[in-house]
Amino acid sequence: MARWEPGAQARLQSAALELIARQGFERTTAAEIAEAVGLNRRTFFRHFPDKRDVLFSGQSELEAALVAGVEQAPEGESPMGLVGLALARAADLFVNVPRERARANQAIIDAEPALRERQRQKYADLAGRLGEALRDRGVSDLAAMLAAESAAIVFTLAFAQWLADGESRSLSLIIAETLAELRALYVPR
After folding, report:
1. Burial class (CB in 10 A: 0-12, 13-18, 19+), 117
2. What CA–CA distance (Å, rounded) separates 119 from 111?
3. What is the pTM of this model?
4. Long-range CB contacts (< 8 A, 24+ apart) of 55-62?
5. Which residues contact 65 (CB under 8 A, 6 or more apart)?
6. How confident is the model at residue 12 (pLDDT cuts 50, 70, 90)?
7. Per-residue CA distances from 30 to 18, 53, 113 (Å)
8. pLDDT digits (tens, 9 = 90+) for 129-179
9. Which of the four pLDDT bands, split at 50, 70 and 90, describes residue 3?
10. In sequence order, what are the residues at sequence separation of 6 or more whose Cβ sits closer than 8 angstroms to the Cβ of residue 6?
11. How many helices (H) and strands (E) does the chain have?
């Protein structure tokens, strides 16, 4: 029986991507997603608080990686050095993520205004949590907010590049290049 097979969450995510891509987000129900993998609606809601969360799973892991990057950094790092270490830690989460799956997920988000807004809120929440971690390391409020918001922008831009058609660089490399470009803005050309 499918409901006893391992990996229910991953199977639900795959089914959701397929169904939503075919039918649209609004016309796809949690019950349909669960049914597609032989599960019931209740099981769906044990894994995801609502249908939107299928597209945003991994948020808590991303937040934890960013915070760990700051908390475990050596003493004496600058705020942007801490951000770089946090982003590098976050990029490690994407090493085994199939890029095509991430592209399909992002295409669904891009097609729905409410999902785009939710994604913006998720990035704002990440920046807020990263700012807290920076303040906990003794970074001043203003510097922590500037660094955390910069991290959110760098991640957003790097992630979009990583998803681009024909892109083969790792997210880690794209983040490093994007951070270097940000730092170069302060150097006269």
Report:
1. exposed
2. 12
3. 0.89
4. 55/16, 55/105, 55/108, 55/109, 55/115, 56/118, 56/119, 56/122, 57/9, 57/13, 58/93, 59/122, 59/125, 59/126, 61/93, 62/90, 62/93, 62/126
5. 86, 89, 90, 92, 93
6. very high
7. 13, 11, 19
8. 999 999 999 999 999 999 999 999 999 999 999 999 999 999 999 999 999
9. very low
10. none
11. 9, 0
Q: Tokens representing 80?
A: 């942007």
The vertex-42 CA angle with 120 and 63, nearest 5°, equals 30
Q: Which residue has the tokens 């006893």?
A: 4
CA-nearest of 109, 115, 118, 125 to 66 is 125
- CA dist., res. 167 & res. 99, Å (int): 10
Which tokens in the block code for residue 38?
């032989």
Cα angle vertex 92, ends 58, 106, to 5°?
45
CB 91, CB 44: distance < 8 Å: no
Per-residue pLDDT reduced to its tens digit, 69-108: 999 999 999 999 999 999 999 999 999 999 999 999 999 9
First to last CA, the chain: 64
CA distance 153 to 158: 8
